[in-house]
Specification:
- With 356 residues, the chain is of the alpha+beta class.
- It has three domains: 103 residues, Endonuclease III, domain 1 (Orthogonal Bundle); 88 residues, Endonuclease Iii, domain 2; 119 residues, Nucleoside Triphosphate Pyrophosphohydrolase.
- Helix content is 40%, strand content 12%.
- It has 14 helices and six strands.
- The strands form two sheets. It has a three-stranded mixed sheet with strand order 1-5-4, with helices on one face.
- It is globular and about 70 Å long.
- The chain binds a DNA duplex (11 and 11 nucleotides) through helix 3, helix 4, helix 7, helix 9 and helix 10.
- Adenine glycosylase active on G-A mispairs. MutY also corrects error-prone DNA synthesis past GO lesions which are due to the oxidatively damaged form of guanine: 7,8-dihydro-8-oxoguanine (8-oxo-dGTP).
- One of its GO terms (biological process) is mismatch repair.
Length: 356
DNA sequence: CAAACGTGGAA
DNA sequence: TTTCCAAGTTT
């Protein structure tokens, strides 16, 4: 695995490559931590730019700890699982205030911190501190279940896979090994069509020997997602300020900037932020982890009205990029609708020829 | 411990 | 179009 990693390691902004690592270079624990939290349930391709932006805005854990909550949530917007961003800040503040800006160099110490669970603690311990801890993420579950031909379905198989993975973790270069086995899972031992022909583990893989590699790991089927509905209210006042609110800490899109909405359920009760002749401009479709959402977008001119919730934010201080993706979709629809209205106002009669 | 918690790309 | 799934953690 380590030989394979020496020649096939993927380059990433937060990673110290195998050559530099063997020359004695160590990654910055802050950068490793930030990348690992971002990578939770999130692809490398998506994380890259977010990681670079965060490092540019907040180069050290002390910088991040001193940041405004709203700025960090805005920078996280679009990455999803927003509890990660809230815990990221909590963790940075603990490390900065209580630990002199240094991450604990032990599994147990890391596990105490907000947002750091078994995987992230092992990743930090091994990658940043070169401790012989074992990472078990989705990649490792797949690689191990195939090498040992574990037929037990996940998540039941998790403890078994963890024990097997621990047996393979070497005392030498545990950090590079952790990254190697995850790279292998991401590039060779993939969920569909694994590239067994070029796999360094081919000779020792029980699933490959039996020809069942594509069927592993087995998983319990997922529940079908229900569809919920809701309403969202996109409005500006006479000054052109946008009515926005910060969603409650707990729950969906917690802590994020958003337009006011009704509840989201099978039969939502309308909840406009003020009485007006609300106009429905269409429906936004969005899928969350556990349900589909059909969100009907309403607009109205707020004029001089005093809403029951939310705050008017001047257009100059509002960036659509600070919104979570669902709200961004609602914003884009409202923009397109108002653009169309303006265009048709300027050119009221401009019939598009019918194309048969 | 099951359920909650986002999003985008690939098949 | 729909499902699957990606370097999981918290409650």
């Amino acid at each position: 695995m380590l030989d394979w990693y020496d020649t096939h390691a993927r380059a990433m902004p937060w990673r110290v490559g195998p050559a530099d690592r063997r020359a004695g270079q160590r990654p910055d624990p802050y950068a490793v931590w930030l990348s690992e939290v971002m990578l939770q349930q999130t692809t490398v391709a998506t994380v890259r730019d977010y990681f670079r932006r965060f490092i540019a805005l907040w180069p050290t854990v002390d910088d991040l700890a001193a940041a405004e909550d709203a700025d960090v949530m805005a920078a996280w917007a679009g990455l999803g699982y927003y509890a990660r961003a809230r815990n990221l800040l909590k963790c940075a503040r603990v490390v900065s205030r209580d630990l002199e800006g240094r991450f604990p160099a032990s599994l147990a110490g890391l596990l105490q911190l907000p947002g750091i669970g078994p995987y992230t603690a092992a990743a930090l311990a091994s990658i940043a501190f070169d401790l012989p801890e074992t990472v078990v993420d989705g990649n490792v579950e797949r690689v191990i279940s195939r090498i040992f031909r574990v037929e037990t379905p996940l998540p039941t198989a998790k403890p078994e896979l963890t024990a097997l993975a621990q047996r393979l973790t070497p005392a030498q270069r545990p950090g590079d090994y952790a990254q190697a086995i995850m790279d292998l899972g991401a590039t060779i031992c993939t969920p569909r069509n694994p590239a067994c022909g070029i796999c360094p583990w081919r000779a020792g893989c029980a699933a490959q020997a039996a020809g069942v590699q594509a069927d592993l790991p087995r998983k319990v089927p997922k529940a079908v997602k229900p569809t919920r509905r809701g309403e969202v209210y996109v409005t500006r006042n006479a000054s052109g300020d946008w009515l926005l609110e910060t969603r409650p800490e707990r729950g969906l899109l917690g802590g994020m900037l958003a337009f006011p909405t009704s509840d989201w359920s099978q039969d939502p009760a309308p909840a406009p932020p003020f009485e007006a002749d609300w106009c429905s401009i269409g429906t936004v479709k969005h899928t969350f982890t556990h349900f589909h959402l059909l969100l009907e977008v309403h607009t109205a001119d707020a004029g001089q009205k005093n809403p029951t919730r939310g705050t008017f934010i001047p257009d100059s201080r509002f960036r659509a990029a600070d919104l979570p993706t669902l709200m961004r979709k609602a914003f884009d629809l409202a923009q397109a609708t108002s653009d169309n209205a303006q265009a048709s106002h300027k050119r009221p009669v401009n019939p598009v020829p019918e194309v048969p």
